[in-house]
Fold this sequence. Notes:
Blueprint: H1 2-11, E1 17-23, H2 34-38, E2 43-49, H3 56-68, E3 72-75, H4 87-94, H5 96-104, E4 112-117, H6 124-132, E5 150-155, E6 158-162, H7 174-183, H8 193-207, H9 209-216, H10 224-234, H11 246-259
Parallel strand pairs: 1-2, 1-4, 2-3, 4-6
Antiparallel strand pairs: 5-6
Amino acid sequence: MTKAKRMMQENIKLIDLIIELVDARIPLASRNPDIDELGKGKSRIVLLNKSDLADETWNQQWIKCFEANGAHVLEMNARSGAGVKAINGLVQKACAEKIERDRKRGIINRPVRAMVVGIPNVGKSTFINSFAGRACARTGNKPGVTKGKQWIRLSSRLELLDTPGILWPKFEDNAVGMHLAFIGSMNDEAMIVEELACDLLKSLRALYPDSVTGRYGITWSEEPAVTLEEIARSRGCFLKGESLDLKKASGILLDDFRSGRLGRMTLEHP
Length: 270
């Protein structure tokens, strides 16, 4: 994390624009607070990635929220390419003042240089490959795939600087850490997945209760652990004998949430 942050500090002076990817399901928790400090004075684009997995009503509310804070915002799905074609126009709009300054100084067609930033597993590399129309960056479904920086020339008008995803050393709010774990920005191997699944069930019961009961054909219990046991029974998750395999049931629940099989959900509201 320290190395990646230092890399960004060293390169920020070279760029005109910061393109920040956030996860539309948790737009606040998936933003590194250091980006605001590092990017002071730079034009900003916020891409609500995986917007197809998020609640559309709240997508619109988040767009208004980020725009009110001076950013240009776009809903996007890097994997399918939805929304990607609109980014070139947004880049020109975000950097209109810079382009006009260059024109007045006699500098024509100098490419906009943009730094692409985001936390691990938010979809940066998938976005870059989709935007470029070719494989430029390594991708994976686990955090930490991008290890170093690389410049990618997309056209005569735009160059991208890909950077490693940065999480911050500590979370002041426990909910931030939980939300990041829900979407897979932390390594599941470092978690007790049964506890993580119970925490997710608490959130879903408050926000989208019908999604769980409808998906698994169960009723809610006051205790998340009991609800998790019901999911295990519903999905036939048993160890030898009649004991329940709660780890397997937890994995099913997390995978169903992350893939959108539980429906479109937004866990944070502006």
